[in-house]
Structures are given as structure tokens and as C-alpha cells.
Design goal:
alpha+beta, Transposase Inhibitor Protein From Tn5, Chain A, domain 1, 2 domains, 8-stranded mixed sheet, 3-stranded antiparallel sheet, disordered N terminus
Length: 457
């Protein structure tokens, strides 16, 4: 016969700092005592603070936003608000509501520029007011702040910059502006552009947009701003545009060629393209049936669609297996490169952009577009983009040469950022005590060396 366990009252659910007895471990008593005055489970926020200082993205955002608050009533500076929100996103606290629970955390205070003994950080209402007061002019300046931060990441002019651009769905469940029903995803969504540099994985920018396939005007308008900025800074750098078939529109290719932007784009199939490779399909299919092995073949030719202004080079990739012959096409203005290299190395390299979007969208939760106003959702997207810039920058600097140099953001969060720390506050110092076996000891040592070198410089 089982005994009913009474539901605890409201008072009994509030644990007092007393010794608690849990299930025994053999003959060993297991006890819990809530008596430590200053503890944090997010000691790695100090590494986020150093990484943010190194790449300057928070300062760039502050310079882009016009803060017209009455200084006599300001309790939290703009830099403090941005640092608090972004560092929390880096740790996996993606909602503004999390500010209420973390505002007294000493590590996040220091990471946001406050002393551990200072007043609490901002609450959710304060953070939400910030998200909903950013103007369209502020957002435009923020777009260029991210673009300039990307260009500043190069010590000298690179030989080439590969622009990987792709829209991705952010599902919406309320009355969000620009939220549309997308039949492909069978959901109401926004489809923001994610733009990365394909060779380094660095973020160029992110732009919110309606939940539908992008138009040629959208693509050209965005490319025009990015390419102009790149050419102003690096006039001799080769700019390459790489994207899927959604971007292979006649006006887009005309604009790319007119502005000397090289391109390699996916191309949707049609009857004419199928006829061009039909003999190869039959040959590969027969060979596969005879030998029961996979076979691949590449074919290149020139083709002009009815809406195109001229003939362009097409590369076809054919792959025969037991499931049949799969055929993919790309269009490019690279005339001398080999077909296999163009497809396997250059075009398929854009698959890395999917991993970048995954880290931005899944690990940093940038798909949380729950504001009604589109400007607020764009600002939220910029906040998550700043978290991406900081996390990617930390991987390029502090983690370079370590076992975590290629780790995902999620691994970095769990292994390096979620580190327990005991806080000791003195009159002239704040000291964070961490485990003697902590895996981040060497990383903090590296951060200290970098900070010292910057101070001397």
C-alpha cells in the first residue's frame, strides 16, 4: 500500500539555508546546505567580456544607437544593457525574462561593466523597452556597424571575400509584422537573410524580411550595400557571391556581371538542361546497373535561358546510385576553372554556411522573433548576431590552437562558459574562485596575456 505524499505548501517550497538530508550513498549521508553567499554557474562570462572587448562589436553597436534618454534618470548605460543581454545570449539565456533571474549574478555584473557589489543589472521591462525603442535609422546604422566590424577583422586586404547569403525560416506564432504563410515549411514565418564570409565563417550581417522567397530587388539592394562597403575598404579584393537557386535571377546575374562580382550559383533544372545531359544520364545508369557501384560525372556547357541577356557557363554534376541518377546544375562566370573543382570545392563549400546558420539560429536561439513590431525583431536579431560575432571571435583568438578551436557554440557553452565560480568582493578587487581542475584555467591565462599586451600597447 502506497502512502500519499502531501503537496508542499508555498512556504515549504522556499528553501532556507539549512542542512538537507537526501538519499544515502550506502552508509554515507548525502547533505545539501544552501549557505554560500556569492556563487555563479556562469564563470565563463568573463571570457565573453574579454572577447567582446577584443572585437569591439558592443562599442560599434553603442555608436550606432541614438540614446535619447534623460541622463538624470538613467540607471543602466547603453553599453551595460547591450553587454548584459548579449553575454546572457552567449550563455544560452535567450529571453529578456532571464534578466530578472540573472540581474544579481556577480559574474554577469562584471561582464556587463559593473562591480560585483553594485546595484543589480537591468530587469526584463527595461530590456524590453530598449528593444522596442530602437528606430529605423538606428537599425540602418547597426547594419553598417556589423559590416564595418567584419571588415575590421582583417589585418590587411584579403585576396578574396566570399559572400554566402541564405534566407532561413523563423517561425512566428502571433501577429508579427511581415510574418507570412510559407507553403514549403507549412508555417507562418519570417525569413531573415544570413550573410557570412564563406572562407572564415565570420558574420557579415543579418537582415529580417518577409516569410517568402526573396525577390531580385531584395537581393540586389542588399548586395549593393555590402559590395560598395567592401570595395571602399579593399578595392583590389576579389568579391565572390555564392548562393542557391533562389538567387539565380536574371537581374541579379546582370548586376553581378556589371559590378565585377564573380559568382557561382545553384540553378534549377528544366527540360532544356535535362536534354543536354540525357545521354550522360543513360550512360551512367547503364554503368551503375552493370557494376553496381556509385559513379559520378561532371559536364560543362554554355546555355542561355529565354530571360537571360547572354549565354553563361553551366556545370552539371551527375551521380548514379541504386536509387537512380541525380543531376544538379550550377551557373558561374568562372570560365577556366575545372568543373569538378567548381562544384565539389567551391559551390559545395557553401554547405558550411548551413552550419553557421545552425549555430546562430539553434545554439544562440536567434529565431526568437516574438515581438510584434518588425523593428524590434530586427534589433533582437542584431543582438543574437552580436553574440555570434563574440563567440566566433573567441573561437578564432582565445581558443585557437586548443582542442576547442573547432568546437560548436553549444560545446563551448557547456564545457567552457557554464563554469562554477565563488565570488569574493574586496574594497579594491573582485576575485572569482574556480575549481583547481577547471578546464578553462589555460584559457583565462591566455586572456590575461592578451589583456596585458593590449594595456602595454
Amino acid at each position: 500500500m502506497t502512502q500519499d505524499i502531501a503537496s508542499p505548501s508555498t512556504e515549504s517550497t522556499i528553501f532556507q539555508p539549512e542542512q538537507l538530508e537526501l538519499s544515502r550513498l550506502g552508509k554515507t549521508r548525502v547533505q545539501v546546505v544552501f549557505d554560500e553567499p556569492e556563487l555563479s554557474s556562469d564563470g565563463g562570462a568573463l571570457l565573453i567580456r574579454e572577447s567582446a572587448e577584443l572585437n569591439g562589436i558592443i562599442d560599434g553597436m553603442c555608436n550606432a544607437i541614438e540614446d535619447d534618454r534623460d541622463r538624470a534618470h538613467v540607471r543602466h548605460t547603453l553599453k551595460e544593457l547591450l553587454s548584459q543581454r548579449v553575454s546572457q545570449i552567449c550563455h544560452g539565456y535567450e529571453d529578456a525574462n532571464d534578466c530578472n533571474y540573472l540581474r544579481n549574478d556577480s559574474v554577469f555584473k562584471v561582464a556587463s561593466g559593473r562591480s560585483a557589489s553594485d546595484d543589480p543589472l537591468s530587469s526584463q521591462p527595461t530590456m524590453t523597452r530598449l528593444e522596442n525603442t530602437v528606430s529605423l535609422r538606428d537599425l540602418i546604422r547597426l547594419f553598417y556597424a556589423f559590416l564595418d566590424n567584419f571588415l575590421d577583422s582583417y589585418a590587411s586586404a584579403p585576396k578574396s571575400i566570399v559572400i554566402d547569403m541564405d534566407p532561413t525560416p523563423n517561425r512566428v506564432y502571433g501577429g508579427q509584422q511581415l510574418g507570412l504563410f510559407n507553403a514549403h515549411y507549412d508555417e507562418y514565418c519570417l525569413m531573415p537573410f544570413h550573410i557570412y564570409e564563406g572562407q572564415t565563417g565570420r558574420l557579415i550581417s543579418t537582415v529580417i524580411r518577409p516569410g517568402k522567397t526573396p525577390t531580385d530587388k531584395e537581393i540586389i539592394g542588399l548586395l549593393r550595400r555590402i559590395v560598395k562597403r567592401i570595395r571602399h575598404r579593399f578595392p583590389k579584393t576579389m568579391v565572390i557571391f555564392r548562393a542557391d537557386s533562389h538567387h539565380t535571377k536574371p537581374p541579379v546575374m546582370n548586376w553581378l556581371e556589371h559590378n565585377n562580382v564573380r559568382y557561382i550559383l545553384g540553378l534549377g533544372t528544366n527540360a532544356v538542361l535535362k536534354r543536354e545531359v540525357q545521354s550522360l544520364v543513360e550512360e551512367l545508369s547503364k554503368t551503375q546497373r552493370d557494376n553496381w557501384s556509385k559513379y559520378r560525372r561532371f559536364h560543362t556547357f554554355y546555355y542561355q535561358a529565354g530571360t537571360w541577356s547572354k549565354k553563361r557557363r553551366i556545370v552539371a554534376r551527375l551521380e548514379a546510385s541504386s536509387l537512380g541518377v541525380d543531376v544538379r546544375f550550377i551557373v558561374t562566370d568562372f570560365h577556366n576553372a575545372g568543373a569538378k573543382f567548381l562544384y565539389d570545392t567551391v559551390y559545395c563549400g557553401r554547405g558550411n554556411a548551413e552550419l553557421m546558420i545552425k549555430e546562430h539560429k539553434c545554439f544562440l536561439k536567434s529565431s526568437r522573433s516574438s515581438c510584434t513590431d518588425i523593428k524590434a525583431n530586427q534589433f533582437r536579431l542584431f543582438l543574437h548576431s552580436a553574440a555570434y560575432v563574440i563567440m566566433h571571435g573567441m573561437r578564432e583568438t582565445l581558443l585557437q590552437g586548443t582542442e576547442w578551436s573547432k568546437a560548436t557554440f553549444q560545446t563551448i557553452q557547456l564545457r567552457l562558459l557554464k563554469i562554477a565560480a565563488r565570488v569574493e568582493v574586496g574594497k579594491t578587487f573582485v576575485r572569482f574562485h574556480m575549481s583547481i581542475n577547471s578546464p578553462v584555467a589555460a584559457l583565462f591565462g591566455r586572456a590575461a596575456v592578451i589583456v596585458k599586451a593590449m594595456t602595454v600597447t
